[in-house]
Structures are given as C-alpha cells and as structure tokens.
From TrEMBL:
Subcellular location: Cell membrane
Source organism per UniProt: Limosilactobacillus ingluviei
Transmembrane segments: 20-48, 54-75, 87-110, 130-147, 159-180, 186-204, 246-267, 273-293, 314-335, 355-376, 383-404
The UniProt record lists the keyword Transmembrane: yes
A GO term for molecular function: xenobiotic transmembrane transporter activity
Pfam families, sorted: MatE
Keyword Cell membrane: yes
Name of the protein in question: MATE family efflux transporter
Superkingdom of this protein's organism: Bacteria
Keywords: Cell membrane, Membrane, Transmembrane, Transmembrane helix
Topology in membrane: Multi-pass membrane protein
A cellular-component GO term for this protein: plasma membrane
Length: 438
C-alpha cells in the first residue's frame, strides 16, 4: 500500500468511528428533544433551546482543553514524550474545578441568567427546573470531552466510538425512564443530562488496559504553561463551539422579538435536527485531525495535505446526502416534534428547515478547514476563520436579514454566513497547503 493510500485507509478507519460516535450522541439529543416535546410540549422545546447556550459553554471549554491538549500531546508524544506526560491529568483536574465553580455561579444567579437567555412568564418556571439541574453536568461534560480527544489521539478511536454509542443507548433509556415511568418531565430530562457524560467516562476508563497507550494519570497541580499550550491550539474549536452558543442566543432573541415562543420552538426543532449534519462533519474533521497532526509532527507535510483532501471529499459528500434527505422529508420530521399540533410551530419550522439546511455542505467544509489548520499548528489562522464564522459575519447577518426578511430572513442567515466563510477559508487553506508542500 502506497503512502497516500495508507493515509486514506487510516483516515477512513478514524472517520467511520468518529461519525458513528458523534451521530450516536446527536441521536440522543434528538430523542431527548422528542421526549421533551411529548412531555412538556412547545414551551418545553422553547426552554430547551433557551438553555442550549449553556451546553455550548460546557462543550466549548471541553474542546478548548480537549482538542488543544490532545493536539499538543500528538505533536510531541513521538519525539518528546516526557514533555506531555502529565498534560492529560493537569487538564482534567483544572476542568473539574472549573466546572464546580460554574455550578455555583449558575445557582447563585439562576433567575437573572434565565431572563438573560430569554425566559418570560410562560417559560421561567420550567427554566428554573431544567437549568438548575443540568448545571451539575458542567464538570462532567468538560472532563468527557478532554478524555475522548486524548484517547482518540492516543491511538484508540474504537474505544471513543464505543463510549459514545454506549452513552447514547444508556442515556436514551434513562431519559425515557425518568420522563415517562417516573413522570418527572423536565426534571427527568435534566437528570438524564448528568448521566450522559458519566456513561461515556466509565467506558473510556477501559483505555487503562490499552497496551499501546501513552496516557497516564498523575495527581499533579495544573500548570499555567500547560493550560496556555492547550488553549492556544484549542482556541479555534472553542470559538467554533461558542459561536454556536452565541448564534443560538441571538437567533432566540430575534425570533422572540419577531414572533414569540413558538418561533423559538420551531428553531429548536430545526437546530436540533441540524445537529445530525454537524455531528457527521465533526466526525470527519476529528478523524482527519490526529493523522494530520501526527504527520506534521513527523515532518511529512505531504501526508497531512493528503489527509485534508481526502477528508474534504468525504465531508462534502456526506453533508450533501444528509441535506437532501432532511429537506425531502421535512414534513414528517417536523410533525414528529409538533406533538401539540401547534399551527404556528408547524408553519415556522416547515418554512425554516429547507432554508437553514442549505448551509450543510458549506458548514462541513468550514469545520474541516478550521480543524485542519489547528492540526498543522496554524492555530492563529484557524482562530481567525472561526472568529469570522461565528461572530464577525454571522451576528450582523442575523440582525440584517431579520430586518429584511422577518423570520425566514433569520433562518437564511446561516447558509449565507457559511457560504461566505467557505470562500474566505478556501483562500486561507490554499495558502497553507502551498506553504506545506513548498
């Protein structure tokens, strides 16, 4: 097998497992959304969507330390293993402590936080219940993201796939039991959120038996230098995930101002279905990342370039298939979540879904470009692209298109933004590929 073919084969190995893992987790999110729709109706969906930015904060912090720390680990584990011997332990200890602080802050400022997120008299009670409980998942989500990325970069992608799929199956069952058997409704959905990363971490603990592992656990004090090294390389995925939270927040507020809670509930349906396409795109990108980082670290840049082009073909093809499928079957998808048969929710979701999903192919390409630039130690360029994608272009577009096109204009902001970022990112990546192969 030639070098290029070997790289492609290895990427396929990583990508398949990452896609299964990511789509498995997003399936849980979809099922959880469906359960909430059945148990608490449209207002339950609204509360879930108002709380999503908090999940993005937890996930973004996990990615900052997890992707950044694991990339740093991959870049140095071959030639300088002693340099990264305690990186994982330091990041885990820091993340857990940070998560405990976040729990305290959420409980201390619960009502002001809910009002800031967009809760009104209709949704405040449900919001207190849901957010107050899900806050306890903060340290677990961060530690889970760190562990998944380190285990993947330590040569064990099969275990990360198994962890996420096991997590999905277990949490769906727990979710169902709490919501329907115990009748806990929103309380049950929030409790299931805590079990989600716990199930994954239990499976990931089996990595201790992996005979080729380099990861070890040490009780050490987190060092500022380690946190900085991880944050520098993890800043792009952090900004990428945070941009999702910020954009959801702005989307929610614009829709509340234009049309009220049912428009937010419709956006919640569309955004949660969109998680499937984003999960697949992240699966491809995170499958390319360990190989591109390793080859770059071994001074084999052509192999890193091969990894990028192969990943781009995979992610664009997959996104196109998912986009077409979701648009064709939009009516039954929306009907599934509209358990109260609300005509307003139905109207907004049916109109918004095909508009929103035209972004899928461009978003998939953008995610790969951002992660690849990080993988080849071009964190600053990657950060610039992430910042443009999540903030500089998207946020003004949401406001502008809302003014021009109302609710449909809000949904159109996403595809317009992703298209512009693809054009800008293509130029950035072209320059980096030329530099790597010079």
């Amino acid at each position: 097998m030639t070098g290029a073919l070997a790289i492609k084969h290895e990427i396929n190995h990583y990508v398949i497992r990452n896609i299964l893992a990511n789509v498995g987790l997003s399936t849980y999110v979809l099922i959880d959304t469906l359960f909430i729709a059945i148990a608490a109706g449209s207002l339950g969906l609204t509360v879930l969507n108002l709380a999503l930015p908090l999940y993005n904060i937890f996930n973004a912090t996990g990615l900052l330390l997890g992707v950044g720390g694991a990339t740093y680990f991959s870049l140095h584990k071959v030639k300088e293993p002693a340099r990264v011997q305690t990186t994982y332990s330091q990041l885990m200890i820091f993340a857990f402590g940070l998560g405990v602080v976040e729990i305290g802050l959420i409980w201390l400022f619960l009502d002001p936080l809910l009002h800031l997120l967009g809760a009104d008299s209709q949704t405040l009670g449900l919001g207190r219940t849901y957010v107050g409980i899900m806050a306890f998942s903060a340290p677990l989500y961060m530690c889970n993201y760190i562990t998944i990325n380190f285990v993947r970069n330590d040569g064990n992608p099969s275990l990360t796939m198994m962890a996420t799929l096991t997590e999905t199956v277990c949490v769906v069952l727990i979710d169902w039991f709490f919501i329907f058997k115990l009748g806990l409704q929103m309380e049950g959905a929030a409790l299931a959120v805590i079990f989600s990363p716990l199930c994954s971490l239990l499976v990931l603990s089996r990595h201790a038996r992996f005979k080729h592992r380099q990861l070890t656990w040490r009780w050490v004090k987190p060092q500022l230098a380690t946190l900085k090294a991880a944050a520098r390389l993890g800043l792009a995925p952090f900004m990428n995930e945070m941009s999702s939270g910020v954009s959801i927040y702005v989307f929610n507020w614009m829709l509340l101002l234009l049309a009220g809670n049912y428009a937010v509930a419709a956006y919640g349906v569309v955004a949660n279905v969109a998680i499937i396409t984003l999960a697949a795109a992240n699966g491809v990108a995170l499958g390319v990342q360990p190989i591109a980082s390793r080859e770059f670290g071994k001074h084999a840049p052509q192999n890193a370039v091969t990894a990028f082009w192969h990943g781009l073909k995979l992610t664009v093809t997959l996104a196109a298939i998912l986009m077409l499928g979701l648009i064709v079957f939009k009516a039954p998808i929306v009907a599934l979540f509209n358990t109260e048969h609300q005509p307003q929710l139905l109207h907004y979701a049916l109109a918004g879904l095909p508009i929103y999903f035209t972004s899928a192919v461009f978003a998939a390409a953008n995610i790969l470009m951002i992660i690849f630039l990080t993988a080849v130690n071009r964190g600053q360029v990657s950060f610039t692209l992430s910042f443009l994608r999540g903030y500089v272009i998207l946020l003004p577009l949401i406001v502008l298109l809302a003014w021009l096109g109302g609710v449909n204009g809000v949904f159109a902001a996403m595809p317009v933004n992703e298209l512009l970022i693809t054009l800008i990112g293509a130029g950035m990546v072209k320059n980096e590929l030329r530099r790597l192969t010079a």
